[in-house]
Design goal:
Layout lengths: L3 H25 L3 H7 L5 H28 L4 H27 L17 H12 L2 H28 L5 H8 L6 H16 L5 H8 L2 H13 L1
């Protein structure tokens, strides 16, 4: 049975996570790329750039999630990271299928539409998985997934209306229209458990998670150029 302290920590963690998502929403869902989607002005090049960037991102974070799981053997954090790795692995297969159907060059070296700054986000996730504590990793995962879900809710209708777009591309983004509540709650349980046991300070954990803000902004800037 969940103790009173753990229940209190869960409520505090959930409130902190909601504030974190709100604070970063301007870079994830109120950016120029998403605004262009809202207005129905996405071009084929815009969509190809996002597909290629998402593919590159998932290619480079899958392995480090598995390494992170190995850092915390026989713990709830390990179970969460293994589940997260499976989810990301499925996403990776799906985005590659969408890219192939769209004729996107998956292995293309980033050029004028994918600047090297965009890959800073992957570097951040790699650093996080190899160095950060379970609470920080879980809170970043929660914020990242929650914000991606919100972006996909906006993007999907625009993609559905885009003439000639392969079903595989639309399906990838449509898959995140429904909020993935189970994995989001699982992430917050990890954070709450670490805080309740005194292993992590919630404010420090939030501070680490805020480091992703600039990297999210870089991702969307790269997609929209």
């Amino acid at each position: 049975m969940m103790t009173t302290n753990t229940t209190s920590e869960t409520e505090s963690v959930r409130a902190a996570a909601e504030r974190l998502v709100t604070a970063m929403r301007y870079v994830a869902t109120d950016n120029a790329y998403v605004a262009k989607a809202r207005a129905g002005r996405l071009t084929d090049d815009d969509i190809a750039a996002l597909v290629r960037l998402e593919n590159a991102t998932l290619d480079n974070v899958t392995g480090c999630i598995a390494l992170a799981a190995g850092r915390f053997p026989n713990t709830p954090a390990m179970d969460f990271l293994l589940d997260l790795g499976q989810m990301v692995g499925t996403d990776r297969r799906n985005i590659r299928a969408g890219a192939a159907a769209y004729g996107t060059a998956l292995e293309e070296i980033p050029g004028q539409r994918l600047e090297s700054v965009a890959y800073g986000y992957m570097g951040f996730i790699n650093w996080l998985c190899l160095n950060a504590d379970p609470a920080a990793i879980a809170l970043v995962a929660h914020a990242d997934i929650a914000l991606w879900h919100e972006a996909c809710v906006i993007l999907t209708p625009a993609l559905q209306k885009h003439a000639g777009l392969p079903t595989e591309v639309v399906d990838y983004f449509a898959g995140y229209q429904e909020r993935p509540t189970e994995v989001l709650d699982q992430a917050l349980e990890i954070v709450a458990g670490e805080v309740a046991e005194g292993r992590q300070d919630l404010q420090q954990t939030v501070g680490t998670a805020r480091l992703m803000e600039d990297h999210l902004a870089a991702f969307w800037r790269a997609a929209g150029r």
